[in-house]
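Sanity check

After download, print the first record. It should look like this:
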Amino acid sequence: QVQLVESGGGLVQAGGSLRLSCVASGNGFSINSMGWYRQAPGKQRELVATITSVGMTNYADAVKGRFTISTDSAGNTVHLQMISLKTEDTAVYYCNADYSPHGVRRSYRYWGQGTQVTVSS
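Expected structure tokens:
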């Protein structure tokens, strides 16, 4: 069973920076990819950025050039460095892990509980 613990959310002024982190723990599985999604009030959850176990990244157009996703060498911690934050980046940010239990030829997705990011004008 995967467990995800997120940290780093908070309140920041427009133009500021924040760094989110998410640690995956547990045994008996391999991480295929990890990522960040966000959900603003009244809107659907949307992709922010993902990174695969081999380092391939994908970003939403709205955050390209401002956000950077990375992992540690063990591949079980994902960071999201956010700069030049805008008020429209305000949302709850959710960590996601796509994983496969050892010996199982399919993948599963697990979500963190979310961390609030608020960007004030």
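If your output differs, re-run the checksum step. Summary of this record's structure: The chain has a mean pLDDT of 95.
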